[in-house]
Amino acid sequence: MKGLIRKILKEEVGGDALSRLRLILTKMKSIQGWEKVVYDINKLKRVPGGIQDKTEGLWSLLKYMGFSPTYAVQSARLDTIYWFSTTFMKNGGYDRDFSEGEIQLPELPVYEMEGQFTEEQYVYKSGWGDMLGISNEEEAIDRFTNDIDEYIEDSEEDDRDYGDSYDVENVVVQNIRMIKFDPEWVGL
Fold first, then answer.
1. Which stretch, 38-42, 62-66, 70-74, has highest mean pLDDT?
2. What is the pTM of this model?
3. What does the alpha-carbon distance between residue 173 and residue 53 come to, in Å, rounded to a whole number?
4. pLDDT (tens digit per residue) in 116-127
């Protein structure tokens, strides 16, 4: 089945990057929700979670066109989902006939950030230790509860949980990289 789809796409496409891009934008119309992806990106300032179906749909289209990422797959997915969803909506989205008219090819900045932060961390442990010179259970429980550090001889981590991030400092922009249309995305 994949071979047949790949053959049909190659026949429909022709050779140049713009005609291939037009085909991808047209095929993106079959995947609902691109306007929400763009809205969420603009609101959250990152690619939102919960868009696996759209990512996989776009990724499949690009693979059929011959795209084979040469850099980290996660980075390639984020770049392509950002660029194609934005380009699709900027060029008219679901109401557009992509086979005619001008196609805007936006250049989208990505700010690569770095900063140090402190994060609370809760470590849940079980600890064991022996107590001597205790006269009853109640006293043993009370002393162990109120001064556990004095009596722990061995412990084991049961679970870990993280609190909020706070005390963010030394924030810098490491790099500003532009996502531009890449003919490799459409198999050229």
1. 38-42
2. 0.71
3. 31
4. 988 889 999 999
Spatial distance between the Cα atoms of 29 and 88, rounded to a whole number of angstroms? 9
| Helix/strand/coil percent split, the chain, to 5 | 45, 25, 30
Beta strands in the chain (DSSP E): 108-128, 154-179
Asked if residues 143 and 151 have their Cβ atoms less than 8 Å apart, the reply is yes
- What does the domain layout of the chain look like in residue ranges? 2-113+177-186, 115-170
d(CA 105, CA 108): 10
Rounded mean pLDDT, 148-164: 91
The residue type at 113: M
User: What CA–CA distances, in Å, run from 116 to 81, 136, 167?
Assistant: 28, 49, 8
Q: Measuring CA to CA, how many Å separate 171 from each of 114, 121, 134, 163, 168?
A: 6, 22, 54, 20, 7
How does DSSP classify residue 1?
-
For every residue of 99-122, DSSP letters joined together read TSS------EEEEEEEEEEEEEEE
- Answer yes or no: are the C-beta atoms of 128 and 152 closer than 8 Å: yes
Task: Decide the pairing of beta strands 154-179 and 108-128.
Answer: antiparallel
Please answer whether residues 79 and 181 qualify as being in contact, where contact means their C-beta atoms are separated by less than 8 angstroms.
no
Bin 44: left if φ > 0, else alpha if -120 < ψ < 50, else beta: alpha
